[in-house]
Amino acid sequence: MKITKIILPLTFGALTLFAVEASAQESTEVTKRQYNQADSTKASYEREEAQTQRQKDTERMTDVKNERSDTKAKAKEAQRIENDANDAAKESKNALRTEKKAQKARKKADKQANDAKDARDKSNLN
């Protein structure tokens, strides 16, 4: 009886330890599976995130290139307009100079005509 009282509790204790150890191993396996699944999910998410980032970068680069070409076109157009304005200003300046010369020539011609008239009048009087 004494042996039964000693062996029985030891047997129950040993069985309990084996049961706990077995359940602990099973939960570790579940944890490993869960870990692998979580790792797989994380890797998939990171791949999708990287793909999305590459697409965004590509779109931004395209937008920047389009904006740059638009800016170049606008700058070229502005340069053309500035050149046209400068040419028009030169033409206007030349036209003004020519008109002043023409007015001066007309005044000189009028003065010569008056001088000639005065000279004719004097010669007619003599």
Notes on the structure:
- The chain has one helix and no strands.
- It has 126 residues and is mostly helical.
Summarize the model shown.
The chain is mainly alpha-helical and 126 residues long. It has one helix at 2-125. It starts with a helix and ends with a helix.
Which labels suit this protein?
single chain; 126 residues; mainly alpha; 1 helix; 98% helix; rod-shaped
What best-fitting shape do the alpha-carbon axes yield? rod-shaped
Q: Which percent band covers the strand fraction?
A: under 5%
Oligomeric state of this protein: single chain
Largest sheet: none
Q: Low-confidence spans: pLDDT under 50, at least 5 residues?
A: none
Order of helices and strands: H
Write down how many β-strands occur, each being a DSSP E stretch of 2 or more residues: 0
Give the number of helices.
Answer: 1
Q: What is the CA-atom radius of gyration, in angstroms?
A: 53 Å
Summing up helix and strand content along with how strands pair, one would put the structural category as: mainly alpha
pLDDT average, as an integer? 86
DSSP helix fraction = over 70%
How far is it from the N-terminal to the C-terminal residue, by CA?
A: 182 Å
